[in-house]
Amino acid sequence: MSVRAKPRNVILVGFMGTGKSTVSRLLAGRLGWERIDTDDEIVRQAGKTIPDIFAEEGEAAFRDWESRVLQEVLAGSRHIVATGGGAVLREENRRLMLAGGWVVALTADRETLLRRVTEADPAGTGARPLLKGDAAERIDRLLRTRRHAYDFAHATVDTSGRTPAEVAELLLRWML
């Protein structure tokens, strides 16, 4: 699949652990575009961590932050945007993303996701509030509820058997 004209922005969506943050860094470096991670931007603007937002204000408040940040970021151009895994849960966010650039869904199989998210937080410190408790059970539940959440994207890449560099190269080939 190729993109007919270079998009205004590239928006990476997908479940946690699919590689959005890492691939976005690589793409931004190769294209010379600004990389924006919506979770990092929420933390910057809110002045608190995502686990703190969840604990103090709840998931709905976090999703409100997510929508505001997406709207701000996608008003610009030449951005590689790594979204949080749940950013696609609101219809308004999906519309914003589709209007704001080329949306690529990164996917991975369950075993790869579980390995990546547990390797990223081996001590179980709670960096991912939605995985509190039994991570495998939570991933299974979230995968079931989000089964078609990323279907709206313009393109999909399974990252299970690929390095982040391979995924970035594939996306660059599609763009150029």
Name the features.
alpha/beta, 8 helices, 14% strand, 51% helix, five-stranded parallel β-sheet, 176 residues
Walk me through what this model shows.
The protein is built from eight helices and five strands. It is of the alpha/beta class and 176 residues long. Strands 2-3-1-4-5 form a five-stranded parallel beta sheet, sandwiched between helices. α3 packs across α4 and α6 crosses α7. The longest helix has 16 residues. The termini are close together. The model has no long low-confidence stretch (mean pLDDT 89).
Would you summarize the structure shown here?
The chain has 176 residues and is an alpha/beta fold. The chain has eight helices and five strands. 51% of the residues lie in helices and 14% in strands.
Shape label: globular
Average pLDDT level: 89
**Distance separating the two termini:** 11 Å
Low-confidence stretches: none
Number of strands: 5
**Whole-angstrom Rg:** 15 Å
Sheet with most strands = 5 strands, parallel
Helix content: 40-55%
How many DSSP H or I helices?
Answer: 8
Please trace the helix and strand order, writing H or E for each element.
Answer: EHEHHHEHEHHEH
State the secondary-structure class. Answer: alpha/beta
* Neighbour order of strands in the largest sheet: 2-3-1-4-5
What percentage of the residues does DSSP assign to strands (E)? 5-15%
